Amino acid sequence: MRLKEKQLEASVESLISRVAHVKNALHSFIYKLENEYERLTWPSVLDNFALLSGQLNTINKLLKNEKTPSFRNQVIIPLLLSPDRDEDLAKLTEQRVPVFSHEIVPDYLRTKPDPEVEEQEKQLSADAARIGPEVAQKQIQALNKLCSNLLEKLNNPRDDRDAESATMRQNKSSFNPADTNALVGAVAFGKGLSKCRPPGPVAPGHPGQGPMMSGGPTLQQVTIGGGGSQQAGMGGPVAPQQQGQPGKMPSSIKTNIKSASGSMHPYNR
């Protein structure tokens, strides 16, 4: 019995020492975050996290050691509860617990979570039990796949990611070739444009002609037959083309076409 008590005291002292090291490391790290954040670098932050992780692992190994007695079998019973301030307790806890009263004892000596937290844990356990094995396996596979893709992206060098992004930007087309060809054909050759005559009443004495613009010259319809006869839309006959003068157009038709083409130019509207 005496040997077990000595082992328990030695284990508690060792545990208190390890926890003090963790507390000092946390205090130093918090001080750096609050007062030296301008000079703090990311490698220094990682070093502090590594130090804390190593100290916590040491505590876990100490608790799992065979020579360490099981603290679960130990019971702490408060012998004296008082609403008055206890200076020794305040000094021992660094002014965190100045009073050992009925109000704070349930919180500091609690061996179970808060009732609200315990109820939430029960609800989560019930929700997990309702999920079938197949659905759970699918969710696990989807989560593993997502984590694997994320780890792969994080592990890839930054140069590879930049090169991949540059390649995607170069290969990505910023225009539609079909729309560009259609626009060029419409502007250069009039391809795809409507050939219908503009609406409007037909002027008397000018069959087949409608008003294009008010106050401006009108477009004359010219019919050039392949057999040797030409007629203008003004109603008057046009002299047949003479032999030996291929492609020669009468002066009246030239004048009408010239005036019509000038009125239909987009910059003259």
UniProtKB/TrEMBL annotation:
GO MF annotation terms: RNA polymerase II cis-regulatory region sequence-specific DNA binding; transcription coregulator activity
Compartments reported by the entry: Nucleus
Bias-annotated ranges (Low complexity): 237-247
Transcription among keywords: yes
Chain intervals for the UniProt region annotation (Disordered): 155-179, 197-269
Biased composition (Basic and acidic residues): 155-164
Main subcellular location of this protein, as a coarse class: nucleus
Key word Glycosyltransferase present: no
Biased composition (Polar residues): 167-179, 252-262
Swiss-Prot/TrEMBL keywords: Activator, Nucleus, Transcription, Transcription regulation
GO biological process: regulation of transcription by RNA polymerase II
Any single GO CC term annotated in Swiss-Prot or TrEMBL for this entry: mediator complex
InterPro entries, sorted: Mediatior_Med8_fun/met
Residue stretches of biased makeup (Gly residues): 224-236
Subunit field text: Component of the Mediator complex.
Family: Belongs to the Mediator complex subunit 8 family.
Biological role: Component of the Mediator complex, a coactivator involved in the regulated transcription of nearly all RNA polymerase II-dependent genes. Mediator functions as a bridge to convey information from gene-specific regulatory proteins to the basal RNA polymerase II transcription machinery. Mediator is recruited to promoters by direct interactions with regulatory proteins and serves as a scaffold for the assembly of a functional preinitiation complex with RNA polymerase II and the general transcription factors.
Listed name of the protein: Mediator of RNA polymerase II transcription subunit 8
